[in-house]
Each structure stands twice: as C-alpha cells, then as structure tokens.
Specification:
Order of helices and strands: EEEEHEEEEEEE
Organism: Alkalimonas delamerensis
Keywords: Autocatalytic cleavage, DNA damage, DNA repair, Hydrolase, Nucleotidyltransferase, SOS response, Transferase
Domain Peptidase S24/S26A/S26B/S26C: 27-142
Strand order of the largest sheet: 1-2-5-6-11-7-8-9-10
Helix content: under 10%
Protein name: Translesion error-prone DNA polymerase V autoproteolytic subunit
Family: Belongs to the peptidase S24 family.
Strand content: 35-45%
C-alpha cells in the first residue's frame, strides 16, 4: 500500500507512514561489501532486514518530508531527498532539524553554542541567528536521509 501525502498548516508536505501490514523484510547478507578493493562474494544470509525496524525508533512520532533546495548539500541532503524526521527526539547541539522560523519551515543544523542559530551546510546561505523576537520552534530531528543514486 502506498503512503499518502499530507500538507500541514505550515505548508510542510510529508508522506504518511505506511501501515504495519505493508512492512516488508528483505534479505540481509552476513558479509559486508568492500568500499575499497573487491572481496570474494559469499552466499551467507544473516537474516532479513525490515527498514522500518532499522530506521524508525518512534513510529507514532515519525514522518517523512521531501527536501527542497541546496542549502544542506554539505550534509549530503540534496534537492528531492526524503528526510525521516523523529518528533520524539530532543534536539541537541549539531542535530539537523526541521524548524519553523517566523512561520517558514526549513531544514538546518541546530547550533546551541556559542550562540543559538540554524546553520546551512552550504556557504552560499548565511546562518539564521535565533535572537529574541524570532518566532522559532523545532518541529523534529532528522534521523535519516533517503536519496536515490539514479533518478
């Protein structure tokens, strides 16, 4: 069953979580794959891997959202990538978060020291200082990024 698409009051569009019945475990091989020199392949299965079990720690507080733009490319978040966002996690220094700044949704790295700000991962974009008077709220912590190698 395909996930439904939703739009929040802030204009943030996300894909709904699939129901438990649509979860599919795929084979997981025991051997690792060399990212350097090739190694001989072996046909040993470790078991099955369910991506929901691997990626989603808080199912009722987790949602997907599609990234738009190039402000986070230095953090390997590219235009069109799907972000897995966990609202149950407490945002900490250096976390990548989905935040509302003066009513606009953005994905940025949260810096709490030396002063609170949201920082892009692209030098083209200035940091957003979280000074008094700024309407700011963390909407969730980005826990995973899904991007296609071929589109």
């Amino acid at each position: 069953m395909a996930a439904a698409s939703f739009r929040s009051e802030q204009g943030l569009e996300w894909l709904g979580a699939p129901d438990a019945a649509s979860s599919r475990a795929l084979p997981m091989y025991l051997n690792t794959v060399a990212a350097g020199f090739p190694s001989p392949a072996q046909d040993y299965l470790e078991g099955c891997l369910d991506l929901h079990e691997l990626l989603i720690r808080h199912p009722t507080a987790t949602f997907f959202v599609r990234a738009r733009g190039d402000s986070m490319r230095g953090a390997a978040i590219f235009d069109g990538d799907i972000l897995l966002v966990d609202r149950a996690l407490q945002a900490q220094h250096q976390d990548i978060v989905i935040a509302s700044v003066n009513g606009d949704m953005t994905v940025k790295r949260l810096l709490l020291k030396p002063e609170p700000m949201l920082q892009a991962a692209n030098p083209k974009y200035p940091p957003i200082r979280l000074d008094e008077g700024i309407d700011f709220e963390v909407f969730g912590v980005v826990s995973s990024v899904i991007h296609q190698l071929r589109r």
